[in-house]
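Long-time lurker, first post.

We've been arguing in lab meeting about whether flavin mononucleotide would sit comfortably in this protein at all. Half the group thinks yes, half thinks no, and nobody has a model to point at. So I'm putting the question to the forum: if I give you the sequence and the SMILES, can you give me back a predicted structure of the complex? Inputs are below. Any interpretation is welcome too.
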Amino acid sequence: MDKDFGVKTWMYPLPVLIVAAYDEEGRPNAMNAAWGCIYNDNLVHICLSRGHKTTANILASKAFTLSFGTRDQLAACDYVGITSGNKEADKIARAGWTTRPSSHVNAPVINELRMRMECELVSADGEQIVGRIVNVSADESVLGPDGLVDYRKLDPLTYDPVHMRYIALGEEAGKAFSAGKELR
Ligand SMILES: Cc1cc2nc3c(=O)[nH]c(=O)nc-3n(C[C@H](O)[C@H](O)[C@H](O)COP(=O)(O)O)c2cc1C
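Top reply:
Settle the argument with this. Predicted structure of the protein with flavin mononucleotide, as tokens:
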């Protein structure tokens, strides 16, 4: 027997995206966003409430970074999701984070988060923000022997919207575009 839950935003897994942008004076701010995804080959989509400081910053600076929240930064990732830069001007420092300018877009890179997408604003329609991926970069410390990102080293968080908790990734379960071939 199935159980109906009605209209919920319960999608598994949701990402833990840390969206960062500069304000008009060049001060960095960041927030946590679970409602984000790949839109097409080079576009991302995030759903951001209009009242957030980060949203205003993206509209002003026309750029943002999307870093992946990680287990070692869990408290800081949550902090930037429960505190607004509209009230706490020094939010990034309070999170224990430092930033540097992206060399690809007009947006801050958070040094303590080791993989991110660097994006230019394409459109903002209400809460729907679309950005163009200009670059993806990752710290060498999260790369595997093949030179690509190793999820075990990155240790990214996911967000469980049912119980409002962060879940780390588990073991590899199978090869995509491959495991189904045996059923062809
Ligand atoms: C796990 C988690 C996920 C969140 N996802 C979103 C989201 O997808 N969109 C959004 O507008 N706010 C989301 N928030 C809320 C913002 O991160 C929060 O309101 C933040 O304080 C906004 O900061 P700012 O005003 O400095 O930009 C989320 C918060 C948490 C803790």
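For your lab meeting: The chain has one domain: 14-183. The domain at 14-183 is CATH 2.30.110.10 (Pnp Oxidase; Chain A). Whichever side wins, do check it experimentally.
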